[in-house]
Amino acid sequence: MAPSIDAHVHLWRLARGDYDWLTPDFAAIYRDFAPGDLDPLRQGHGIDGVVLVQAAATVAETEYLLTLAAETPWVRGVVGWVEFADPTAPAEMARLAADPWLKGFRPMIQDIPDDDWMLRPDLDPAFRALLDLDLCFDALTLPRHLKNLLVLLDRYPDLRTVICHGSKPQIRDRAFEPWAADMTLLARETSALCKLSGLVTEAVPEWTEADLRPYVNHLLEIFGPSRLIWGSDWPVCTLAAPYDAWRAAAEVLTAALSDAEKAAIFGGNAERFYRL
Question: CA 63: distance to chain centroid?
């Protein structure tokens, strides 16, 4: 039986000082989040393991997460960060990948001013290193990046890629196109997977499952249950909903699937993709 996996969790300690985006404006999450804060939620939902995902654009934070992984039995892997544009990126990736908890890397594309950044020729050594090291690429994109992402994945067809948070569709504005069409092309033309995560923070504060359903249904239709990976995006999700509420919504939105399909989305696909 497939394990139950939360494939997108953040943990941080503010005193580390490298979470540039995390300011007091985000009052609900402007505090430390440690394994002990997540453990009761994890146990309450019968989740066997989690994947820690970078939240700072520093190698130091990746090393911090790897330390947490080594100390925490239910952490199954880490998605870290390196500066892809740095000539030393391949060597840094190899160094970090010597740690068995390191599963891949996530450049913070959504925060990079240049929408064409991912297509820069000087990033080729970093993407080649991902392939050579057999590591995953977490694509943290927004809808406006999707056409470029398709070009990138055509350039590197063997890159093991997962699109974070469904590429953050603008649910609060009920914007469906061109996000839907661009995601359809990515699903059809590439082998990328997609995370069923981060959707509640893109919806209106008083969101309901009905607000999310068109987007979730579209992802189910184009990727299928074998290419969707559930994640909580905790604690960021708590800006819009408690962990319990997002988990419950995801279960309702996938209720029509078979037990095997639900097991894949809520754990099996993450285990396979990240090789946990």
Answer: 18
Confidence category of residue 2, pLDDT binned at 50, 70, 90: confident
CA 197/CA 7 separation, integer angstroms: 9
Q: What mean pLDDT comes out for the span 210-228?
A: 98
* Cα distance between residue 199 and residue 171, in whole Å: 8
Q: How crowded is residue 175: how many other Cβ atoms within 10 Å of its Cβ?
A: 13
- In CATH terms, the fold of domain 5-274 is TIM Barrel (3.20.20)
pLDDT per position as a tens digit, 31-61: 999 999 999 999 999 999 999 999 999 999 9
Structural tokens at position 170: 């603008």
| Cβ count near 103 (within 10 Å) | 25
Say how far apart CA 273 and CA 266 lie, in whole Å: 13
Alpha carbon distance 98, 19 (integer Å): 25
* pLDDT above 90 coverage of the chain, percent: 99
Helical (H) or strand (E) element with 104: strand 102-105
User: CA 237, 56, 99: angle at the middle one, nearest 5?
Assistant: 105
Number of helices followed by number of strands (H, E) in the chain: 10, 8
Q: Is the pLDDT of residue 184 over 80?
A: yes
Strand, helix or coil for residue 6: strand
Beta-sheet strand order (sheet of 5-9): 5-9, 49-53, 75-80, 102-105, 136-139, 160-163, 193-196, 228-230
Tokens read off for 126: 């970093």
CB 117: neighbour CB atoms within 10 A?
15
- At 232, list the tokens: 């909580």
Nearest to 250, CA basis, from 56, 8, 1, 67 = 8
**Residue range 146-151: mean pLDDT, rounded:** 98
